[in-house]
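Appendix B. Raw example, untouched.
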Amino acid sequence: MTAVQGNQQVVIPASENPVVAGVLAGVAAREAVIPFQEIKARSRSLSDNRDALAALLRPGCGVIVEIKRTSPVFGPTHVTHTAQSVGALAAEIESGGAALIACQTERLRFDGSLQDMQEARRATSLPMVCRDVIVDPYQIHEARCYGADMVPLQVGLLEQARLESLLDRVESLGMVGMAEVRTPEEADRALAAGATVIGVNSWTFDTNEVNRQAFSDIEPGLPESVVRISLGGVRNARDLMAAASTGADAVIAGEAVMNSNDVTAATRKLVAAGQHPACPSRWGG
């Protein structure tokens, strides 16, 4: 998290955040079973990366559908209500034309798991985004072992040296690092760390409220070479087109698909909106 002392922005140590503290406790428990050196060796032996960056650079505004079992704001979603397997759900999302699949693996607030991501990956050919609070190197190697192709790093939870080292580690494993930001100051820190994919999250971490100005406030300060992803607030095709009109190359959509009675149709509708002539494309095609 960040706080302001006088005119200076200060990063609050991640360990003081209760969510992060819970995440670290989980990491410690898993590391007691599979030591760091073992998970590291396993992750470095894998070679079946899927090209998440290429998926993001397609013409139009790409759609990344997020699989989640529940959320602290909206409660249980499609997976829980229908008892549908994650693999079957992922296959429906792929049929709808999504560019990538994001899977919530955070257990504390979203009842997610790495096994969910692994199941989704096995059922599809799409690149996978591991949606979690990533603050420890162990998690990066673990995510790779369970099929992640892109990993988010929440800039507001990480001191600069840790942000840089985690980003380097993600990329050393052939994955794409997405710096997740909520303010222009965090975006500046992400760029300084070398991030080339930036996700602007409109959900505030502490209050779970939507800041619909977040993307338009941050986007003008990003270099042309940076891939821009809008996270949160995409409830329908109109929201997606609005995000694209302000410079989003892709959006992450959760409830817009997850609470639909027809996941494939809901995905297809968003994908069609992203290909509309009104959605500018920075990558040609």
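End of appendix B.
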